[in-house]
Amino acid sequence: MNKRRWIAVGIAVVLVIFSALSSTINKKEANKEELSQVNELLYGTGEPQEKVEEAGSSKDKIAKLVVEGAIINDGTSGLFSTGGYNHASFMQQLTKIKNDSDVKGILLEVNSPGGAVYETAEITRALKEIQEDRKIPIYTSMESQAASGGYYISANSDRIFAAEDTMTGSIGVIMSSMNYSGLMEKLGITDATIKSGALKDIGSTSRPQTKEDKEVLQAFVDSMYGRFVKVVATGRGMDEKKVRELADGRIYDGAQAVENGLVDAIGYPDEALAALRKDRKLEDAKVISYTDGSTNFMNTWLGSSLADLQGIKPSQEEVIANIVESIGTPQAPKAMYLYGGE
Length: 342
Hints:
Layout: H1 3-25, H2 32-43, E1 49-54, E2 61-68, H3 87-98, E3 103-112, E4 114-116, H4 117-134, E5 138-147, H5 149-152, E6 159-162, E7 167-169, H6 181-187, H7 211-236, H8 240-246, E8 251-252, H9 254-259, E9 265-266, H10 269-279, E10 286-291, H11 301-310, H12 316-327, E11 336-338
Parallel strand pairs: 2-3, 2-10, 3-5, 5-6, 5-7, 6-9
Antiparallel strand pairs: 1-10, 4-11, 7-8
Helix pairs in contact: 3-4, 7-8
């Protein structure tokens, strides 16, 4: 058949599938297993798929991992990622590496201002397990920014590289909130909250903050800060006292970070990779990365619309709700390992 005929057949097949799926969705007795198989064919598995970045002559692999953007969990999978960092997909990549005996090194590229405390700690724990259980070296390349949580996930690396102009540091914890009680008083609005204890509405925006409120919140933040300091001290082989001197929240450029022992060397991703190859005798290893496991059809208007129709793609409202839950609100602030957390 000629090219035009193939295109016509392709369109016809897509329309038939679309019609069949739409009909199936509306039937209560639909076979979920069959629908799942069709969805996998149309959209992909959602499991990370290996992609060769640089060929090698041995079976050894260097896995390139990328953390791009704020470290938060928006509740989407790799298939329905909204762009930027996707926590679920990244954690799946770490699991894949842990179970792949051919991976002999990791190049971690970080360009992040940090993010949520839980997700940051989860990444760090998984990376540490890979280092200890599989004895896989991790070389990190900090790009434009690797601050706060971005530095946290880098700290345990075997070697850290940064450009001279990389923004890093900001070691610490922030919990941002606002207080409108003064404005409410001027407007004649009174807080009428009923609570079981004096601290049940701690962090309230509608009443003045008490001394006890501040002490409790400060102790909460200080506890998390202490864990951050220990991660840095352990990862960099530094005394905790020295780390605390550096960790007052200030930022450093790459050159300053090297000077203060937070970074090992000035270098870009290609230089970090070259060092990893040389130091660990991986000159012949191939470099791989991971895709999100989606098909091209998922990225089309038709694929996106069909996923919406089936209800398997999170709505914008759900994504926003997940982000808000991850970072908190002025009424319910959350502690963050984040630079610029106002």
